[in-house]
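ZP: hey, is the adenosine monophosphate complex queued? I don't see it on the tracker
AM: it wasn't, my bad. submitting now with these inputs:
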Amino acid sequence: MKTITTLSDLRAARLSLTGTVGLVPTMGYLHEGHLSLIRRARVECEHVIVTIFVNPTQFGPTEDLSKYPRDLERDLGLIEPLGVDLVWNPSAEVMYPSGYQTWVEVEAMTRPLEGAMRPGHFRGVTTVVAKLFNATQPHKAYFGQKDAQQAAVIRQMTQDLDFPIEIVVCPIVREADGLAMSSRNKYLSEAERKAATVLFRALSAAKDLYEGGERDAEKVRGKMKEVLAGEPLAQMQYVSCADYVSLEELREIKGKTLLSMAVFFGKTRLIDNFVLG
Ligand code: AMP
């Protein structure tokens, strides 16, 4: 496994890979969720490239960029046994040298949900992913359902910009008590970590309501709010019951539907989602 930090080394190493290449973009501080994407890429492709880059352009001015957890040695130790060919670990200066001024923006579907709460976030995500696609030239790229809107936005960008890349979206990996794995879980105090199971409980209660026949989206959103309100350490930012494709809020649940939420525990912001239908 080679760890590469310059574009010239990356291009040379990429040229030496013949056969299909799977790309797994990450911001590091890896957990089982990331490893599940790498394992899937390993099964489906002849070569696997993992990128570890905490992308500054997707963080807002008041967000956790400088505090975002980083541990490259630990990450390399976790992925080495999985049969990864290349790790692309550029610096921010390599990705955004001085004078950088080109951006990739997906429009309507970045406006609701995470896009509404985190202005500029998806512009940073789509820009960096487009650059990673160009630099690594993969046949397939692997993303997690954990970031449901991100996966949808990247699929749209890939289609709109004619990248010849198949986007593969992998299921959410959870802790035994239902909490979705996230690098940000590390920030939680013991009490907040316990409280954070409320996301899974709220989504499960909403799903039970739906499975009992409820199709009024406002009632489903109300159920999620009610469960979240029962947890004093949880501060809801939004709950959503939206069309899976357009991500627009629903009145009546019909086809495939995305239940999603963002909730603060102290300063830590967690997101989670379920798909219905
Ligand atoms: P991140 O390092 O947080 O940017 O995540 C890198 C990739 O891993 C993204 O495609 C995420 O959606 C995915 N991912 C993060 N957490 C999980 C999880 N618990 N289960 C599955 N995929 C995940």
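AM: back. Residues 26-27, 33-34, 36-37, 143-144, 146-147, 170, 172-173, 180-183 surround adenosine monophosphate (CB under 6 Å).
ZP: great, adding it to the tracker
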